[in-house]
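quick one, two chains, predict together pls
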Amino acid sequence: MSMQVCIMTPDRIFWNQQAEEIILPTNTGQMGVLKNHAPLMTALDIGVMLIRTKVEWTSVALLGGFALVKQNKVTVLVNQAESPSTINAEQAEKTYQEAQRQWVEATGAKEKVEANFALKRARARLQLVKKR
Amino acid sequence: MAQAFAQMVGGRCAFRGDCTAFSARQAPMAQRGALQVVAGLKDTRDRIQSVKNTQKITDAMKLVAAAKVRRAQDAVVNGRPFAENLVKVLYGVNQRLRIEDVDSPLVNVRPVKNVTLVVVTGDRGLCGGYNNFVLKKVEARSKELAKLGVGVKIVCVGKKGSSYFKRRLDRFEVSANFALTATPSTKEAQAIADELYAGFVSEDVDKVELIYTKFVSLISSEPTIQTLLPLTPQGEICDIDGRCVDAAEDEVFKLTTKSGKLAVEVEKRTTDTSDFDASLIFEQDPVQIIDALLPLYLNCTLLRSLQEALASELAARMNAMNNASDNARDLRKRLTLAYNRKRQAMITSQLIEIVSGANA
């Protein structure tokens, strides 16, 4: 028996399948979870999550949230999740450059916070398409 | 005599295209009264046709709105598992944190100098007083806040509100505009939440209030004011009267067809908010986890409000269109009656003329 992985976004269930192994982008670095993991709760950064079903690795971009591991059931709650097939590589690259430029140029406190978020998101998307 | 008649008919030419044909025929004076009726008859006929067309449109709009309400309801149902899990975890974490002092940027309560009002209106009109009610509430609230010496900024969702505030830029400071779109998704909610989050964290604003239309039933919905930020660490969101509007006690509305008519069933659900395992490991500092949780909660709440506002708008449109159709039906009936009366009167008078002509 493997783990049940369920990724939920506010508008739907994004992913609900069995998996052998997952790697989560937590706030304190990447963390792998195998079956029979101890109950755990972690905050997730904006980044890429890796899921291994049998032999194949799948990657999903998670845009901020948290994960709960409990009795071989992993519940991931995120604001937004994206799979590589929905992201245009060129677009992602462009957005990333743009975000980086804005991040450098941002001056006010509010702009800084906004730019930081945009940059992180663009980076996660870019990572996702690069990995494919 | 014929001249005078032509003048008279000419007076009606403004809305009769074929008056030349009539004056050319040089009808005898006796027919003048009848002719006037003919003019009235065509007008009435045109009027009936136009009412008929309008009724068709309003009927169609009503059906479209009804179908969309159903979709809006599906969206709420799809968001359910997320909201349930979120509330569960939030309560669980809270249990653990009860002793500790939570210090997250989103729960930071400070003296209020500036308030952002998030105004949720529709993108379209023809929905009765829906947009107006919300905007009136905003006017009232901003006056109230101004009286307290608090600065007011507007974040507007929906085109109707944007155009309203655009015309009143001298009185309102609008910091951002968003479209509502036909199906509010996480993306829209996220964009709005980012704006609010950035404003709040950078201390540009000290409080964020949401003004939207709460969906009560298909025939009634009320504009509501809700405090979005700062969040209370208990994960409870209260409206300004202190009533708790929380996702834990969630109402789902269901559109059903009861005896051929559309009806709404409200179903109240209370999420099971049991404690966590004592053995649960917190990978990070609980405060950090709360930090990750609360933005999610903010998003989730925003999305729900958007969905609810959309459902209210559609319901309001459904009602308005229903009334319009009813009115059109009524008007058509009355016009048809008047038309038939006039027609019959005309036939009768013509018959009398023929008979009296034959007699003479």
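Chain B has eight helices and eight strands.
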